[in-house]
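Batch job 17 of 40 flagged for manual review because the log was empty.
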Amino acid sequence: MFMFEFKDMGWWYWLVTVLLLTVGVLGNELGFILAIGLTIFQLIHYVIREKSIKAFPVQVRFWYLLLLIVAFPGIMQWLYWAPLIGTWAQVVFGYCAMARLVSLWPWNREAPFTLKLIIKTFLSRPVRGSVQQGFVESK
């Protein structure tokens, strides 16, 4: 049920990020700024590590960063609840809603875009490694 991946650097990035988002949601805007900064650092790290901006882990971090930036203006900060809840789910249970969403982009899948694929993608149990491993629609 729990999926603490202490040996995975990515897991540590997400843990620190979600702690910073928690600080932000609790009223200290500096938490949001530091979470954005850490996500930029993480994105750069994964671009260098993967040697491609098209790599799936890079895409997930890019869209996550975009969400954090869009949510930053005061009137939009209620949006931080989505990455806060989603990142806690990632850190504790290994369920990454952003990765599942990104796996549905046309360039990341071969299966046709169907309601069955969407349901399977979001309701399947978490897997170790990339979500791309198990979300091809069964025929």
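Reviewer: the log was empty due to a logging misconfiguration, but the result itself is present. DSSP finds six helices and no strands in the chain. Unflagging and moving on to job 18.
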